[in-house]
Amino acid sequence: MKNRYELFSIFQMFYNEIKNQFQISIRILRSDNGHEYLSHSFKNVMASHGILYQTSCAYTPNKMMWLSARIDILLKQLTF
Length: 80
Known about the structure:
By secondary structure, the chain is mainly α. It has one domain. Helix content is about 55%, strand content about 10%. Strand 1, helix 2 (about 40-50) and strand 2 form a beta-alpha-beta unit.
């Protein structure tokens, strides 16, 4: 993706691929507070497919980065 405005068409292709390959539909879309998902057309598509849109809390650190750092610290402590 070269531009964030391409996200809408990429999401539509991704949704169709998931629906066709696995015969399931996306129920929840969760993201950071990016404005790419707030366009009128994006909201309409999510509503028509019954997709619930959730955002993370503002100024919340990435949990995976925290967990990775914590694991690294524990591994270093165990090796000494």
